[in-house]
Amino acid sequence: MGMNLNKENQIKDYEVISEIMEDYLRNSEKGLNFHKITDGVLKLSEGKFAVFNLYEEDGEQFTTMAVSGENKLIKKAMDFLRIDVEGKKWNHDSIRAEKIKHEVITRFS
Predict the structure, then answer these.
(1) Residue 32: which residues within 8 A CB-CB, separation 6 or more?
(2) Which residues are within 8 A (CB) of 64 and not within 5 positions of it... i.e. 6 or more apart?
(3) Model confidence over 22-60: pLDDT tens digits?
(4) Distances from the Cα of 96 to the Cα of 22, 66, 99, 100, 108, angstroms
């Protein structure tokens, strides 16, 4: 039974990835759809939140391109902090950089 569940998860994962790729191919002239990618990462990881941060080439700043997750909680947090995270540029943080330096995708508990 465990093997079937694993195969079902693999099929679901391939479907999510295929959907993202198809969307990109259909709309490639518009560039990457960061929300679609972030939503897909969230589905694949089965996490509660996902954030897509895009670093500048110099590595000194990054921009939060998309946030996915339980929308009520995200909105409440952003309202509390009085910021709109999406589109915000952030300065390099050496502590965060140390935590993620060997990862393309980083998971935090």
Answers:
(1) 24
(2) 51, 52, 53, 85, 86, 87, 88, 90
(3) 877 787 778 888 888 898 888 888 888 888 998 888 888
(4) 33, 18, 5, 6, 11
